[in-house]
Amino acid sequence: MVSNPTASAQDAASDAASNDGKLRVGVIGCGAGVFHLEGYQEEPRAKVVALAGLDTDRCQSLSARFDIPAVYREYQELLADPSIDAVSVAVPNHLHLPVVTAAVEAGKHVLVEKPLARTAAEGEQMVAAARKAERILAICFNRRYRHDVQLVHDQIQAGGFGRIYYAKAFWMRRSGIPGLGTWFTRKEQAGGGPLIDLGVHVLDMALWAMGNPEVTAVSAATFAEIGTQGKGNWPGRVSRQAVGLEYEVEDLATAFIRMADGAVLHLETSWAAYTGAGDDFGITLMGSQGGAEIFSKDYALTGTLKTFGDFQGVAVDGAPRLVKLNGHAEVIKRFVTSILEGGPVSPSGEEGVDRARLVDAIYRSAELGREIQISELTV
Ligand SMILES: NC(=O)c1ccc[n+]([C@@H]2O[C@H](COP(=O)([O-])OP(=O)(O)OC[C@H]3O[C@@H](n4cnc5c(N)ncnc54)[C@H](O)[C@@H]3O)[C@@H](O)[C@H]2O)c1
Question: Is residue 93 in contact with ligand 1, taking CB distance under 6 Å?
Fold first, then answer.
């Protein structure tokens, strides 16, 4: 976890006190940035005072909708405002390292979108920069704060399912490449395809629910079969920044992941595949005393959890009544609390590095065509 020295918590608290008692926040990026704008609306201790993005129309319309006084183009212009205490960063993956580093060096606490970075090595640099600047670095693993995931996590941590020995995590889209020809489908800019984009969410959901067991080995395969034909774009998602139809990343990834305690996790994720799935994700956890299955069709938040146990030796299936939680708002609440009150933040930059290391291992195993030990990675 990034340390949050008392001095910086006091600084933030006194800065906030001089601004109507609210933390002053900037949002960089106007795509997924909208989820942050919605999330901060549920956080009375902070207010968004500035927005940055190159796509002026989108930024202007968000600034009108959320009543944000300052709109910049380049992130450096927003970071130059000394009255801003914290920023949310929702820019293309290759910009996470430079934007986050510049932000912490400018004295801002940072909440960055997933994935933390294209590689664990980049993530390590971001964590080191935040430590050096004594700023908080949090990562937006928003799906961890779904009600179903929370309940399963708490049940596992309370020992209610016994020992979890087999887990599955999946996010499968039939036709959901998020913009053929945009930064998403360029290896250098995105770092990868559905594994780094969607897989990282469900890996985080499963591993966090399991209590973050140590991953020791990975055997994986990746495929680029649909995007390379120019097919599989997300319906309605135009290739906003398209300058061609280059498709340089995988469109399906699968992995078999071993933990130090003997448990295993099977992952599958696609942006595009000939399958019955539409845009479905979830996790399954099988333990020695019980289990659970989360299946979210088209982003459903309720009706998604089944639990499995026994009653007097007879199998029992449960369906807990869920409420709709806004994952971004939940992450933002934790980020703001950590800034104002001190104490470690979670999900932290370090947790982002752990997931990035696993993503690195999956790509490496797929490239080599064999199981690899995590200890073989250099970072
Ligand atoms: N947690 C989630 O549910 C979720 C959902 C979607 C995207 N994301 C993540 O959010 C990030 C952005 O994805 P997106 O879908 O919003 O992409 P996008 O292409 O729609 O938007 C990127 C934004 O970054 C801005 N930008 C680029 N360069 C900039 C610069 N130099 N200065 C200021 N702004 C700049 C662009 O103008 C644009 O507003 C990615 O890391 C993605 O993985 C997370």
Answer: yes
Tens-place pLDDT, residues 89-105: 999 999 999 999 999 99
Average pLDDT value for the chain: 93
- In this structure, the strands spanning 23-28 and 264-270 are unpaired
Verify whether ligand 1 is closer than 6 Å to residue 31 (CB atom): yes
Could you tell me the distance, in angstroms and rounded to a whole number, from the CA of residue 92 to the centre of ligand 1?
5
Is the pLDDT reported for residue 244 higher than 70? no
Distance 222 CA to ligand 1 centre (A): 24
Tell me, what's the pLDDT at 240? 46
pLDDT at position 237: 66
CA of 313 to the centre of ligand 1 (A): 51
Backbone angles phi, psi at 273, to 5 degrees: -165, 150
Q: Rounded to a whole number, what is the distance in angstroms from the first to the last CA of the chain?
A: 17
Q: Comparing C-alpha atoms, which of 104, 137, 97 is closest to residue 120?
A: 97
C-alpha distances in Å from residue 90, one per residue of 35, 94, 97, 302, 374 = 10, 11, 12, 27, 29
Q: Which of 116, 139, 140, 118 is nearest to 35 (CA)?
A: 140
Q: Which atom of ligand 1 is nearest to the CA of 140?
A: 1
Q: How far is Cα of residue 47 from the mean position of the Cα atoms in its chain?
A: 22
The CA–CA distances, whole Å, from 322 to 146, 147, 205, 286 equal 9, 6, 17, 21
Q: Beta partners for 219?
A: 256
Q: Residues of the chain with pLDDT > 70: what percent? A: 92
Q: Please give the average per-residue pLDDT across 334-360, as a whole number.
A: 96
Any atom of ligand 1 within 6 Å of the Cβ of 74: yes
Residue 245: predicted pLDDT: 62
**What pTM does this model have?**
0.94
Q: Which domains does the chain have, with CATH numbers?
A: 6-141 (3.40.50.720), 147-324+358-376 (3.30.360.10)
Q: What are phi and psi of 282, to 5 degrees?
A: 170, 180
